[in-house]
Design goal:
It contains 16 helices and no strands. The chain has helices at about 5-20, 30-60, 65-90, 95-100, 110-115, 120-140, 145-160, 165-170, 175-190, 200-215, 220-225, 230-245, 245-250, 255-260, 265-280, 285-315. It is globular, with a radius of gyration of 19 Å.
C-alpha cells in the first residue's frame, strides 16, 4: 500500500476510537466515527483496485483466491474478538450472535442485530459484501454505471426515514457499497496520472477542510452526515496524499507512523470492547489518565494480536 495512505489509516481509526470514548463529561466524537468509516470504505475500493485492477483487465484475476485471502485476513480477527466478547460478557447463543458470527448482521435493520456482540464488526459484514462484488464493480466503471450508482444512492437517501438512518445509510452493505465504488473510481483516476499544484499547500488545505467538515457535522442533516459530507473532502484528500509530495506526507511516511498504521485493523476491532472494560473498571479516574490508559492498552493488545496471530496467519496464505 502507498505509505501515506497506510499511515492515514491510523489517523482515521483514531477518529473512530474517539467516537467511542465517552467518559465522564467527555462526549463521544461522533463526527470522527462517521468520517473514519467513510474513509475506510473508500480506501478499500481504492487499494484493491490498485492491487488487482491489472489482473482483472488482463483476465488473470482468480476470484476464489482473492476471496480466500480476504477471508483469512479478517475473519480470524473477527472470531477472536467474538470469543473474547463471549468470555467477558457471558452472552448466550441467539440469532444476533449467529448472524454476527457469519458476518451477516449488517443486513438486518435492527440495532440488536447489526450492533450485536463486538458492535464494530458490522463494518466487516458490509465490507465482505463489497469484496464479493469487487471484480464485477471494477469492470463496470463507465458514465452510465456511475450515474446508476449515484441515482440509486440518492433515491435511498431521500426515502430513508430518519429513525432508520443508522440501519440503512450507516450500516447496510448495499448502501455502503457506494463508498467502496467511489474508491474504485478514484483508483482509475489515480492510474491515469495527474499533477498536484503546490502539493505542500494543497495537503494543508485539505487538512483544514477535513477539520471544517468535522466542525459542521453536528449542524448537518442526519442523512448527509454518514458519507456525503465527507465525500467532498475524502475524494481529493486520498488523491492528493496518494502522491505523497507534501509536508504532511513526509510526516506520514516516517517509521513510527507506519508502525502504528500496521496495527489499524486489530485496533479497530478491539478498541470498543477494551475501553468499555476500562470504563467499567475505573469509573472515577481523571479523563486524561483514562485516555492515556485506553490508548496504551489498545495499542499493546493490537501489537500482540498483530505480532503473534495476524502475521503468522499472513505467512500461511
Amino acid at each position: 500500500m502507498i505509505e501515506t495512505l497506510q499511515s492515514l489509516r491510523f489517523v482515521f481509526v483514531m477518529m473512530i476510537f474517539m467516537s467511542h470514548f465517552a467518559y465522564q463529561d467527555i462526549q463521544a466524537f461522533e463526527a470522527g466515527g462517521d468520517c473514519g468509516v467513510a474513509f475506510f470504505f473508500i480506501l478499500s475500493g481504492f487499494v484493491l483496485s490498485l492491487r488487482y485492477g491489472g489482473q482483472i483487465r488482463e483476465g488473470s484475476f482468480q476470484y476464489g483466491r482473492f476471496l480466500k485471502r480476504r477471508f483469512w485476513k479478517l475473519y480470524p480477527l473477527h472470531l477472536l474478538c467474538l470469543v473474547f466478547f463471549f468470555v467477558v460478557s457471558k452472552a448466550i447463543l441467539d440469532w444476533p450472535v449467529l448472524l454476527n458470527a457469519l458476518l451477516l448482521q449488517a443486513w438486518v435493520p435492527e440495532p440488536d442485530y447489526y450492533f450485536s456482540c463486538n458492535s464494530v464488526s458490522w463494518f466487516l459484514s458490509s465490507l465482505f459484501f463489497c469484496y464479493l462484488l469487487f471484480p464485477l464493480a471494477y469492470r463496470r466503471v463507465s458514465k452510465w454505471w456511475v450515474f446508476l450508482v449515484l441515482v440509486t444512492y440518492l433515491t435511498i437517501l431521500f426515502l430513508t426515514p430518519y429513525d432508520q438512518v443508522n440501519a440503512i445509510l450507516y450500516v447496510n452493505p448495499l448502501v455502503r457499497f457506494a463508498d467502496f465504488y467511489l474508491g474504485i473510481l478514484l483508483c482509475r483516476l489515480y492510474e491515469r496520472g495527474y499533477d498536484i499544484p503546490s502539493p505542500k499547500w494543497m495537503e494543508l488545505l485539505l487538512v483544514v477542510l477535513l477539520i471544517a467538515a468535522l466542525v459542521v457535522y453536528p449542524s448537518m442533516d442526519a442523512k448527509l452526515r454518514n458519507a456525503p459530507l465527507y465525500w467532498l473532502v475524502l475524494v481529493p484528500l486520498i488523491l492528493v496524499f496518494a502522491k505523497g509530495q507534501g509536508f504532511v506526507s513526509s510526516w506520514l511516511q516516517k517509521k513510527p507512523m507506519l508502525l502504528l498504521a500496521s496495527l489499524t485493523m486489530p485496533l479497530f476491532m478491539t478498541h470498543q470492547m477494551l475501553i468499555g472494560i476500562l470504563f467499567h473498571r475505573f469509573p472515577d479516574i481523571p479523563v486524561v489518565v483514562m485516555l492515556f490508559l485506553s490508548v496504551f492498552t489498545v495499542l499493546v493488545v493490537s501489537w500482540i494480536i498483530d505480532r503473534f496471530i495476524l502475521r503468522p496467519l499472513g505467512r500461511l496464505i
